[in-house]
Task: inverse folding
């Protein structure tokens, strides 16, 4: 992914993570609370098969859709 697209995605992750703070369901594996920023990054990896930094620019829109889904559907 190009540096410009990486920066735009990082900004979207920051906004979505901020919106998700305190909204993710509790987990016994995270007794102090879940990290929404790490959650979004992990969902991107599990959905698209790689970190957003390692994906081609053609997957830019798909990454944004994953971020949007995470923000609208905390899980």
Result:
């Amino acid at each position: 992914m190009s540096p410009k697209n990486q920066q735009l995605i990082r900004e979207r992750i920051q906004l979505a993570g901020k919106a998700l703070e305190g909204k993710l369901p509790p987990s016994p594996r995270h007794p102090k609370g879940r990290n929404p920023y790490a959650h979004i990054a992990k969902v991107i990896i599990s959905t698209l098969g790689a970190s957003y930094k390692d994906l081609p620019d053609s997957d830019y829109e798909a990454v944004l859709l994953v971020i949007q889904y995470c923000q609208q559907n905390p899980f």
Notes: The chain has one domain: 3-72.
